[in-house]
Amino acid sequence: MHLSMIVVTDIFGGFSTKDYDPINWGSKEDKKHFRKITTEIGTVIMGRKTFESIGHPLKDRLNIILTTQKKENKENIIFTKGSPEKIIKFLENQKIHSAAIIGGKKVFEDFFPFVDKLYITIEPIVLENAQKLNFPKTSFKLVATNVLNSKGTIVLEYKKLSQKDFL
Ligand SMILES: NC(=O)c1ccc[n+]([C@@H]2O[C@H](COP(=O)([O-])OP(=O)(O)OC[C@H]3O[C@@H](n4cnc5c(N)ncnc54)[C@H](OP(=O)(O)O)[C@@H]3O)[C@@H](O)[C@H]2O)c1
């Protein structure tokens, strides 16, 4: 299973703030990038609050929504719960071999040990009272950079280093 994490932050690493509309501080170019990458990957995994803040399932992608609540699955929405290991096993049983982790905080942090690729968009803004993500120390290699617009929104693409990269 290949898991990618896709996150947009401000220049100081803040990824969320109650002072802003949850999804509208990112640039339209990043939204386009997000749509392209997640559609290529095919499956997105998100927490129930992120799903509600988006307001609808992402089209042309299988939407895996984590929640402890009982909800009815729809054509491209599966509600489920459990550990990352359980979710990964479930997807592998469905012959799904790649997925994108798209938030929020707990979902990013819980799935981080299983992620092998990061797509970090940095928007050239500062969010007030921004919340940050907490991860254990991990090494990555930068594999691509992409400037999305004239104001300088950038996407950094990282691959997680494995044991054999250190040999
Ligand atoms: N900058 C970014 O890239 C980015 C991306 C996504 C979201 N965000 C921000 O993140 C915020 C929302 O994130 P959040 O951290 O508050 O919430 P969230 O992670 O989207 O959702 C949390 C909820 O997900 C469910 N959940 C999570 N893990 C679960 C598991 N293993 N099994 C079962 N249920 C599980 C629970 O739902 P129930 O309560 O229903 O059980 C939990 O209350 C928004 O402000 C949004 O703007 C930012």
UniProtKB/TrEMBL annotation:
Root EC class: oxidoreductase
PROSITE patterns according to UniProt: DHFR_2
Keyword Oxidoreductase belongs to the record: yes
Pathway(s): Cofactor biosynthesis; tetrahydrofolate biosynthesis; 5,6,7,8-tetrahydrofolate from 7,8-dihydrofolate: step 1/1
EC number(s) reported in the record: 1.5.1.3
This protein's UniProt keywords: NADP, One-carbon metabolism, Oxidoreductase
Domain DHFR span(s) in chain numbering: 2-167
Keyword Zinc on entry: no
Domain of life: Bacteria
Family: Belongs to the dihydrofolate reductase family.
Stated name of the protein: dihydrofolate reductase
Annotated source species: Thermosipho affectus
Lineage: Bacteria, Thermotogati, Thermotogota, Thermotogae, Thermotogales
